[in-house]
């Protein structure tokens, strides 16, 4: 990648001032090799396995990435590990497509799948890891609802793992975990996580209208039960409705910037978000309890990420100022109708859109939620407008 791939100096300095002191004071998760765990091959010790203690962070992500790569054959490595400089690193999307960059779970042995899942567990919070597993499983729901003709599209093992460059503490490297309704992207530099966007989670049906018994990818041959009424993205949606319902007429007039719900989030699949005028009500016009609600919405988006990521994002938000954030709403003011909101500050934009129908024809029962970096995704400068 050319020199244009680096953040502008002012942004890079700001990031370092926030990230490096945090990394220096962080508790490093202990990583241990054990011959008695689950049988993941290590490059130097073929019979060794990988065991983790402590929360996921940059150090444990590097270790898990190395263990995952070491578990693969040379042919698999050629698919799973590609150069950091490739434009494929910026090629992300959450729609169901025939093939993606990387190596899918369906083409891995069981020990390799476990290595991939350990890697995913190190870059997400426990809640985020479980949500990703649930999204995998929902492909089996869609297959059941849509019928056998959808088998090629609806495959709960059709989630791809890609490493860009060599994981370590010297050269930059990246990670993508992606499939239908999931796109997680990370960039590391000198052993430090420096960007964690685009971050996308989606779910269809948003609310289950019946119960399902689904395959458990973590335990082959076992099933997981999903009860009628389950809502995977409930927290993001509910906290936003709470804030909206707390507003008086004057606040609502500013917050609701259009009665028409857009049909999706902005810039889906595009390498970068765009800098546009902000919409909605500014946080400085909210009461103290309402600001607490606004922070709760942000927390619900970030609950999927590791504490390391949450601290980074909150530090950048604090540095830019909570009062600089805008909350904008579009569409219906109740959950039965199509609705959308976005929260945007100088350093981020979070969006949730519940517009599409589910396979059974229920409107507003198919959610897309995304968090993007308004200083530029993938640790790259925001595209010039």
Notes on the protein architecture:
The protein is an alpha+beta fold. The protein has two domains: 3-226, no CATH class; 234-379, no CATH class. The protein has helices at residues 9-25, 58-70, 74-80, 110-122, 126-146, 234-245, 249-255, 288-302, 307-320, and strands at 30-34, 49-53, 81-82, 103-104, 160-164, 173-179, 182-189, 192-195, 199-203, 212-215, 223-226, 256-258, 281-282, 326-331, 339-344, 348-354, 367-373. The strands form three sheets. Strands 3, 4, 5, 6, 7, 8, 9, 12, 13, 14, 15, 16 and 17 form a 13-stranded mixed β-sheet that branches. Strands 1-2 form a two-stranded antiparallel sheet. It has a two-stranded antiparallel sheet with strand order 10-11. The two termini are 20 Å apart. Residues 1-51 have low confidence and may be disordered.
What's the layout of helices and strands?
Layout: H1 9-25, E1 30-34, E2 49-53, H2 58-70, H3 74-80, E3 81-82, E4 103-104, H4 110-122, H5 126-146, E5 160-164, E6 173-179, E7 182-189, E8 192-195, E9 199-203, E10 212-215, E11 223-226, H6 234-245, H7 249-255, E12 256-258, E13 281-282, H8 288-302, H9 307-320, E14 326-331, E15 339-344, E16 348-354, E17 367-373
Parallel strand pairs: 3-5, 12-14
Antiparallel strand pairs: 1-2, 4-5, 5-6, 6-7, 7-8, 7-9, 9-17, 10-11, 13-14, 14-15, 15-16, 16-17
Helix pairs in contact: 1-9, 2-4, 6-8
